[in-house]
Every structure is written in structure tokens, then in C-alpha cells.
Amino acid sequence: MSTTHAIKDTGAPAHAAGRENKDPEAIGRPVASFGLSFAVAVLATAVIFAIKAAEPELDEWAEEAFGHAWFYQAVLALVLFFGLGFIPMGGRLGGRGVAAIVIGSTVASGLIILAAAAALALG
Amino acid sequence: MLKDLFILVHPTLGVLGVLAALWVFVEALKVNDDTLRRMKIASVTVAVLMLLTWPAGGVWDSLFYGADKAVIEKGPWAFLGDTAMETKEHLFVIVLLLSLYLPIVVFAGNLRASRGARLLTMTVAGLVVLSGLAMEGAGAVLGLSVKVAFFNLMGA
Ligand code: HEM
What we know:
Chain A contains 5 helices and no strands. By secondary structure, chain A is mostly helical. Chain A has one domain. The longest helix of chain A is centred in the C-terminal third of the chain and has 28 residues, at 95-122. Chain B has 5 helices and no strands. Chain B has helices spanning 2-27, 33-63, 65-72, 78-108, 115-153. In chain B, helix 1 (2-27) runs antiparallel to helix 5 (115-153) and helix 3 (65-72) crosses helix 5. Chain B is elongated, with a radius of gyration of 18 Å. The interface between A and B is large, with 49 and 44 residues. Bound molecules: protoporphyrin IX containing FE. Protoporphyrin IX containing FE is lined by residues 7, 10-11, 14-15, 53-54, 57-58, 60-61, 65, 68, 88-89, 92, 95, 132, 135-136, 139-140, 142-143, 146 of chain B. Residues 7, 10-11, 14-15, 53-54, 57-58, 60-61, 65, 68, 88-89, 92, 95, 132, 135-136, 139-140, 142-143, 146 of chain B line the site of protoporphyrin IX containing FE.
């Protein structure tokens, strides 16, 4: 706990501290923050798509208001990714933790997207 | 003709992005000054290629896909084709964000010292490869849905 976490919790990359960070789990703080913002952005994308699939009127309204889904869904996700990514968070997470969050959110949102797409295609 | 050329552009950019991500994955197996320098180049390449794939595929979607969709919906693969297109439009968001996250991990991730950061790099690069291949597969299903519909309409 003590030494390892003391280094890891700074969340700063080695060169920022002017020394080599030897902690095998330490990652830079932006890496943790953007890992978490990635998870929020892709899950939000999947959930919004699932809601649109359940409520086709909402889908039509969104297309009229914001343009085609390939465009506005990605713009929304980019805003979330960069907007949240610059907020320092996840300082206690190591590389393994962030990797688990990235894998989990990718698989979960991928499955939600596939199910919503199939539901929409069934009409 | 120009329209036909256009359909080839976005899968080409996407596949090159997938290959660049595979390059990052392989370099991350053993990190030293040389591999780190190459990983930086490759990870930025992934981000740029996927950023270009986005409008290249999207513009085709907005301008030309309507006619193909009408054909697909007359064929026996209507369900598969529609599912593939809806999946592509939304799954690409994941591919795009992973591709933009990859250079952040490579540049800011303390890769020389941190095993965890190396694992994360390989995870993100590997997911770009897998999700990019899923986009490729969905594209192939789309293309086949059009072909099968035409065969059907011609009574073949
Ligand atoms: C990693 C990224 C991508 C890859 C590898 C990829 C791959 C492919 C492939 C192989 C095809 C079949 C082409 C053919 O029939 O000859 C295709 C079709 C298509 N893709 Fe993509 N794609 C990607 C991203 C996108 C994006 C972001 C969009 C925008 C929403 C998009 C929209 C389309 C459309 C509309 C078609 C159907 C063309 C048609 O037959 O009418 N793709 N894609």
C-alpha cells in the first residue's frame, strides 16, 4: 500500500516529477481521466441509441434537429470525452484498473448498440 | 465512377487505421526508446486515419446510401443489412474514441517504467483492431445485402 500507492496516487507522469517513476502500475493522471471519460462517453452513446430505438419518434426528431446520427452521436461523444477527460479523476487507478474499465465499457456498449440496431431493424 | 471510387476510400482508411493500431500493439510488447518513438508515430497515425474515416464513411452514408438501402430492403437480407448499417453508425463512435485515446496513453502514460501503462496501451490498441474489424465485417454484410437483393430481384 504505502510506497507503491504514494507514487501512484500522484498520478503524474515520471518526467513531470523530474524523476523516473519506477512504480510498475503508475500511469499519468490524464490517462486515468481520459480512460474514465471514454467509458462515460461510449456508454452514453449506447444508452442514447437504445432509447432512440425504443422511441422512434425521438430518433426522427433528433435527425431533424441535429442531422444524421453518424455525425451528431460522434460529436456528442467527443464533447463528453474531451470535456470530462480534462477533469482530473481516477488518480488511484493503475493501468490494470483503467484497462478493465475500458474493456468493460467497450464490450457493454458494443452489445447494447448491436441489440438496439437489431431492434430498430426489426421495426 | 467517382462515386464508386468514393466507396473504396473509407474502408481503405479504416483498415489502414486498424493496421497502425496493430503496429502499436506489437511495439508495446517491449518498450525502449526506439519502440516508444515508433509507437508515438503509429498512435498518432491511428487517430488521424480514423478521424478521416469518419467523414469519408459518413458522407457516403448521407449522400449515396439511400439508394442501396432501398435495394437492401427489397431483398432477403433486409434485416441483416439494416442491423449492420445501424451498428456501423454507432459502433464507430467507440472506434473513434479508442483511436483518440491511444495517443494519450502512449504520450502521457509513463510507458518506460509502468507495466500497467503498457498493458493499457496493448488493451486500447487491441480493441481498435477488434472493433475496426467488426466495422469491416458489418461493411461486408452491407455490401452482400445489396448483392443478394439484386440477385433476388433478377430471379437468380
Ligand atoms: C473502421 C472504420 C470502417 C471500416 C473498416 C468500414 C468498412 C466498410 C466496408 C468494407 C464496406 C463495404 C464496401 C463495399 O460494399 O464494397 C463498408 C460499407 C459502408 N460503410 Fe463503412 N467502414 C468503416 C466506417 C464507416 C463509417 C464511420 C461510416 C459512416 C456512418 C460508414 C458507412 C458505410 C456505408 C453507408 C456503407 C455502405 C455502402 C453501400 O453499400 O451502400 N462506414 N464499410
